[in-house]
Write a structure and sequence with these properties.
The protein has 216 residues and is α/β, with parallel strands linked by helices. The chain has one domain: Vaccinia Virus protein VP39 (Rossmann fold). The protein contains eight helices and seven strands. The chain is globular and about 40 Å long. 40% of the residues are buried.
Length: 216
């Protein structure tokens, strides 16, 4: 389930008009709630944004670091062309099993797979499957800087790298919250994205902020 459900009237209009979940995605989110998965997935606005990025860039190989219940992965896998592939990395076996079931129910099992374990343990095994065209990071925030380095290693010119939750609920620049390891990791990630000469980067202000860089 998404935590992004407190909307202004204008935001609700945009969601209803441009970004509404279809029945399959509604079912996924409802069943995620029923099974007790954390209500921390992206919202449909971000899902549609990922879909548009994949379709406009012509991406065929996508890496997702942090699957949770498969909602964001479903948006991305649906956007892939025939023969496209999404690899998702997920820490928790319970979440991975739920994701597999949902992707299969949505008809995505032929183009999306999830691999279980700490992402920093799984990433070294992906060398033969790189480079990726789009890499979406949405996992434990303290490790975002390390995930960025792996993303750059597995990129090529034109690869899109995204990191969700860069705002940290507005806490990223709160002087009273800078001791939090997640905020420290996100600050290092944001600063690295902005300063890395290999990237052209910005922040897209969807919900909790998506940092986005394109490899030169």
């Amino acid at each position: 389930m998404s935590k992004l459900n407190v909307l202004s009237p204008y935001e609700q209009f945009l969601r209803d008009t441009f970004h509404a979940d279809d029945p399959g995605l509604q079912r996924l989110q409802a069943e995620a709630g029923q099974e007790g998965l954390p209500a921390i997935s992206i919202g449909p606005e971000q899902g549609k944004f990922l879909q548009v990025l994949i379709q406009t860039s012509g991406a065929t190989k996508v890496l997702e670091i942090g699957c949770l219940g498969g909602y964001s992965g479903a948006w991305m896998a649906r956007a892939l062309p025939a023969g496209g592939k999404l690899i998702g990395l997920e820490l928790e076996e319970k979440h991975a099993a739920f994701t597999r079931r949902q992707w299969a129910a949505l008809g995505l099992a032929d183009r999306a797979e999830v691999r279980v374990g700490p992402a920093l343990d799984s990433l070294p095994s992906l060398a033969d499957e790189a480079p990726f065209d789009l890499i979406f990071i949405d996992a434990d925030k303290n490790n975002y800087p390390a995930y960025l380095e792996w993303a750059l290693r597995y990129s090529k010119s034109g690869t899109i790298i995204l990191g969700d939750n860069v705002s940290m609920g507005g806490r990223l620049a709160d002087p009273d919250r800078q001791g939090n390891p997640g905020i420290q990791g996100m600050r290092r990630f944001a600063e690295a994205m902005a300063a890395d000469p290999r990237l052209v980067s910005t922040v897209v202000p969807y919900a909790d902020g998506i940092a986005m860089g394109v490899v030169k």
